[in-house]
Prior knowledge:
By secondary structure, the protein is mostly helical. The protein contains seven helices and two strands. It folds into two domains: 82 residues, lambda repressor-like DNA-binding domains (434 Repressor (Amino-terminal Domain)), CATH 1.10.260.40; 39 residues, no CATH class. The protein has a two-stranded antiparallel sheet. Strand 1 and strand 2 form a beta hairpin. Helix 2 packs across helix 3. The longest helix is centred in the C-terminal third of the chain and has 22 residues. The N and C termini lie far apart (37 Å).
Amino acid sequence: MGYKSIGKRLQMAREDAGLSQEQLAARIGCSQSTLSNYEKGRRRLYLAQLEKIAEELQKPIEYFMQPLAEDAAGSTTEGGWAGDPDAKTLMAALAKLSPAGRRLAVDFVLWLAQREEKTDA
């Protein structure tokens, strides 16, 4: 997991939250240029700072550690879901849930996927 991948996820989460770099930087106590360097993977992001960012963006720290996929054009996406409005809506709703609520949502989606697999078979 490289700094660029973490930075890209940070940028995606910030944009999903509807915050500018200036707004998020002010909330976590750093400069806009520092946050920009985090997002570009040019500056090391320590765990304490990542915890502040994750809390402010209402994302689990694990979100920032997940690898990103590249599409055929070389664009970075979240597992091929970029541009899917349903996926974006789902991710925004999940971000608002408590950890227990997210776990329930994940369990439901896994159950639903398994049910549809059985129906298609």
